[in-house]
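hey m, so remember when u said the tokens were messed up on ur end? i reran from scratch. heres the input so u can diff it against urs
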Amino acid sequence: MTTVEHHPPVLEEARFLQTIRTGDSGAFALLTERYRRELHVHCYRMVASFEDAQDLTQEVFLRAWRRRDTYEGRSTLRAWLYRIATNACLDFLARRRNRVPVAPGQDGAPSEVRYLQPYPDRLLDEVATGSPDDPADAAVAKETIELAFIVAVQHLPPKQRATLILRDVLGWNARQAAAALDTTVPAANSALQRARATMRQQLPDRRLDWRASSKEELSRQDRDLLQRYMDAHSDGDPHALAELLREDLRFAMPPESGSWVGRDTIVQSWVDSGFGSDILGRWRCRLTWANRQPAVVSYLRRPGDTEFRAFAVDVLTVQDGLVREITTFPWSVCETFGLPATLQAAPRPPTT
């Protein structure tokens, strides 16, 4: 990742205006590159797909270069780039109208988002500065990066989604949000009210300003739970695994269709698929983090193989000492986690 020297906002905007006047593409790239990761997170919130957000982030920088003459220094460089990113996402969502949340799962489970992908914490950490007053920290750590929020916000119409993210995640005022969306302040306020009402329906047991638990905030009980979860998975023990799950467990596997509710039904479906027998093979697990939530990477050594191959990533929601939700992603969309694709057969690797 390019190392960029940070400058006070006023100086940065002055340098950017000078760069525009001279047409220096190299200086333009240096000044805008520092915002790449947080713009990627912003696009991810809008579209829920890590891969689509990567493409959109690149599109943002292309649009910014082509439209550089529109920057007049009336807003910060960060705000100008976010405006471009928001509208790039809205254009993308207009093209993706056929990719909407599908029907609810079993027993009233929330509608799944089949294009949902996880966001590795190691990349979120590239944005965070540790300062509660830094806008970059608000983008990744203040709130609204857990999968539950990412899924819920997908149920909003695109303009409402953008308004909610600009106002309630980034902390923009009504005038700034209206300007970014080329609308009026009353219209932006109305969109925000409708978005918040929908979010209260999608997340009835959550506040809109909750903060996700970090690795450092995990209790000893939760750490023990995660270790027992990995041990039970590695041992192929469905009964031990079931003891760690809430009775109302929710489970989804995007991009596969279908979501399920109910511990016994879900565990039985795993057993029916071969978990706990020698049909699939042997398992090993590693602990990582995604969307500020604990995640377990499972490695499978199939019969006849000499090594364990990365199989899937379970992103977990832990509540009251038990696993409440499991969202399982195929390894093919999780290679950005920085973990090895294979493990040697022995010994069992330590957890991290």
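this time it looks ok to me. The first helix runs from residue 9 to 22. if urs says something different then somethings off w ur setup not the seq
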